[in-house]
UniProtKB/TrEMBL annotation:
InterPro entries: Metallo-depent_PP-like, Pesterase_MJ0037-like. The lineage of its organism: Archaea, Methanobacteriati, Methanobacteriota, Stenosarchaea group, Halobacteria. This is Putative phosphoesterase.
Length: 230
């Protein structure tokens, strides 16, 4: 998986022009009981714009759970999604929306094509990961479980990489792009603790952490081995 570049909870697939983010959860702040603004809209816009500027992709793929609420899509959610879509288009990247389990009302606020899964130019399939994907692929990029890892008392969002772990295909699980979405520490999780059926052997998954301070990508051994070092 040397063709993957990790940065700020997104991944760029080299040779395809594709930037992928997952679990944007637009409207997560509306669901909060906190009465003062949490800054979700500016944070998502600015960080997405930063990824688009850095990688200069030709397409930006949202890998499911684009919205947060199951029950409705408010006017504020519609405006926020439009803002993110416009951010992509202004950067020259075509927005591609893949539906997740939260996206029951996504079609109400998005008039473009909505995908159950989306195949990149190299054959990689992007899907949300909440159910078994129909298309076969050499690699799947998913979200859904919001992985994080606790290292030296600090919880960090992480990517999980599994080489050949799902039907012989590689799996890349992304952390939640929305920083208001809780990260789930994978340190002691068993395979059965994951909600995604694409996780078939947690001990074989390699955590990857992008360090915002140093801008370094930190790659760790598979969880089965790494747990003994934590």
């Amino acid at each position: 998986m040397d063709d993957l570049s990790f940065r700020d909870r997104g991944v760029f697939v080299q040779g395809t022009g594709s930037l992928v983010v997952a679990d944007v959860h637009v409207g997560r702040d509306e669901a909060s009981s906190v009465e003062f603004p949490l800054g979700e809209r500016a944070d998502l816009h600015d960080r997405l714009d930063g990824l688009l500027t850095y990688f200069e992709p030709t397409e930006a793929v949202f890998a499911g759970d684009v919205l947060h609420s199951f029950s409705h899509a408010s006017d504020a959610t519609r405006a926020h999604l439009r803002d993110l879509v416009d951010c992509c288009r202004e950067a020259g990247a075509r927005p591609v929306l893949v539906a997740g389990n939260h996206d029951t009302h996504l079609a109400d606020v998005w008039d473009g094509e909505l995908h159950e899964s989306y195949r990149l130019a190299d054959g990689t399939v992007v899907c949300h990961g909440h159910e078994e994907p129909e298309p076969d692929a050499p690699r799947y990029i998913v979200g859904h479980d919001h992985p994080a890892i606790d290292i030296e008392g600090r919880r960090r969002p992480c990517y999980l990489l599994g080489a050949g772990t799902y039907r012989g295909a590689d799996v890349v699980m992304l952390p939640a792009f929305n920083r208001l979405a809780a990260g789930v520490a994978v340190n002691e999780m068993r395979t059965s603790d994951f909600q995604s059926p694409l996780v078939t052997d947690v001990d074989a998954l390699r955590p990857v952490v992008y360090d915002d301070d140093s801008h370094e990508t930190l790659r760790f051994p598979p969880l089965g081995e790494f747990r003994r070092m934590l």
